[in-house]
Amino acid sequence: ARVDKGGxxxxxxxxxxxxxxxxxxxLQAYLSDDGIVLPEPGIDFDKVERMVMVAxxxxxxxxxxxxxxxxxxxxxxxxxDIASEFRYREPPIxxxxxxxxxxxxxxxxxxxxxxxHCTGRADSILSVxxxxxxSIARESDLALPIHAGTEIGVASTKAFTCQLNVxxxxxxxxxxxxxxxxxxxxxxxxxxxxxxxxxxxxxLGRDDIIRETAEDxxxxxxxxxxxxxxxxxxxxxxxxxxxxxxxIHAEAYxxxxxxxxxxxxxxxxxxxxxxxxxxxxxxxTVSNMQEVIARGGPVVLITDAAGAAEAGxxxxxxxxxxxxxxxxxxxxYALPAQLLAYHAxxxxxxxxxxxxxxxxxxxxx
Length: 365
Ligand code: G6P
Prior knowledge:
Layout: H1 11-17, H2 19-30, E1 31-32, E2 35-36, E3 50-55, H3 57-74, E4 78-82, H4 83-89, E5 97-103, H5 109-118, E6 124-129, H6 135-138, E7 142-145, H7 158-177, H8 183-204, H9 207-217, E8 222-227, H10 231-246, E9 249-254, E10 272-275, H11 282-294, E11 299-304, H12 305-311, E12 317-321, H13 329-348
6-O-phosphono-alpha-D-glucopyranose binds next to helix 3.
Catalytic activity: D-fructose 6-phosphate + L-glutamine = D-glucosamine 6-phosphate + L-glutamate
GO molecular function, one term: glutamine-fructose-6-phosphate transaminase (isomerizing) activity
EC number: 2.6.1.16
């Protein structure tokens, strides 16, 4: 069926706003009253010794996020790689390795080539795709659909959150199978996840403050994004979104790396977006934020109510997100990252849905 903008100015805006609905649909597809339902053939996570996760672009940042989940929740060591590096490095794949590929289109040439390197070497090949008839899905032992619906905007939005959703469910299944989380611990987190579409909807109500912030950011030539733990990959994704559609140069660093280089760039003209819900790493990140403020850098703090209260009012702008379980923050904090980029691009008048030089699906090298 033909997809229209449904009253939105851009497909990207529509796809951002659709996230509560597509996430709810995806949860419906993967959850029953008894817990997580995966398509056959399942994976025997008890036997998995190691995972490699490979992708490009936004899908790669979904993999970086998943590494934290699989390692922390399920205790499986994960190596994450960019497909174009992985394929030519031809890394050795040891026994007990599950290879996982994430791709919205399922046709990205580098990701497909990386998958083919693992065929016959890895114990099994998993993929997380939006297009179920795609090459990557067909060449996998198990393809998990993300149920995002057609994504038209070149810059990926709803596909990213739906990728995160499936990767988290998979990590929880692995955690359960390996006895790292009890059934009731998983059930409690799944209840939180079922609430997430509603929380996401509430977060969409923060659009005005994010737009105002983005309009101020639109004049910048360079923007830094900082995050720790699960917020590090979200910072990477936030920087990618901003450069893709607004053409503002943006870089992301793990907050702890600030003093190893990027701090030299800080002055009043370089805004720093700090993504930091009030979790166990919050104080460390806030101290990095203070280092930026002390050098005159304008800080955009994206946090929750507790974080905002603790950080005080030193930040140039504070965007307060609803509260969510710390393990679910990547799904929610994708939203302000997307909206900042979207509104900055609209303020600059760029072609949001078809940014210059970029393609939706890169099927040639
Ligand atoms: C292109 C798109 C990105 C996407 C990447 C990977 O660069 O512009 O939005 O993240 O390809 O695409 P895939 O279809 O493999 O997820």
